[in-house]
Write a structure and sequence with these properties.
By secondary structure, the protein is mainly alpha-helical. About 40% of the residues lie in helices and about 10% in strands. Strand 6 and strand 7 form a beta hairpin.
Length: about 220
């Protein structure tokens, strides 16, 4: 069985040991690591000196942008390429909706198609990168929604900020389950014995201390 791996690093000098661990794990699980389809991306601050970057690994290509599960990730966490890709695909699908409308498809059916091929495209993985978007990039996505409304493909108004807030809430709700892959990122707030019974909160996790403004854009914090 072939395994395609995208190997992501964050300022760690132990990347060779991590890669060896991944290769050993694949071997033990009877999987073959295809190095031709394996890329390395190092997340770092903009304009970092190349002398600070770890050396390139043998047989593994290093890229500034990599696509993982349909999301374009860049080493400086700029999602301009992701937004441009989503907008281009949505514009093509809006053209398809226009052709369906010309053929006499009703507004109810048009709305169902719009939700399936346009709205779902915008919502896909939105909590991953929404916090890192600039005002201009958010406007590009909102303009797609406005175009669909103005051309009569849907009777409802969709606000991008509201959609993102609902998507974050939905993700948090499911990631609170212990079986979820993001659950390990949360820290349970200790409750000493005999503590006062306070009002019920939405969760029992300890809020992280944010020292960097940039970290506020991350869903997990």
């Amino acid at each position: 069985m072939l395994m395609t791996l995208l190997f992501y690093l964050l300022r760690t000098p132990r990347h060779r040991l991590n890669m060896a661990h991944i290769m050993n794990w694949a071997s033990k699980n009877k999987m073959t690591l295809n190095l031709l389809k394996t890329v390395e991306i190092i997340f770092h601050r903009p304009y970092v000196s190349h002398d600070l970057l770890p050396p390139i690994m043998h047989s593994v290509s290093r890229f500034a942008v990599a696509k993982l599960l349909g999301v374009h990730l860049r080493n400086d966490l700029n999602f301009s390429q992701q937004v441009e890709s989503v907008v281009a695909i949505c514009n093509q699908r809006i053209y398809l909706l226009a052709q369906l409308k010309k053929q006499g498809l009703g507004i109810s059916a048009l709305d169902s198609v719009f939700k399936a091929i346009v709205l779902n495209k915008i919502l896909y993985a939105l909590p991953v990168y929404f916090g890192y978007l600039t005002e201009g990039q958010r406007h590009m996505l909102q303009r797609v929604l406005h175009r669909a409304i103005s051309r009569g493909f849907t009777p409802f108004y969709y606000d991008l900020d509201t959609l993102a807030e609902n998507a974050h809430h939905h993700l948090f709700k499911y990631s609170c389950r212990q079986a979820h892959c993001l659950y390990h990122l949360y820290t349970m707030k200790p409750r000493p014995p005999g503590a006062m019974q306070l009002r019920t909160r939405g969760h029992d996790f300890e809020l992280p201390v944010i020292k960097c403004e940039f970290n506020k854009r991350n869903f997990s914090v």
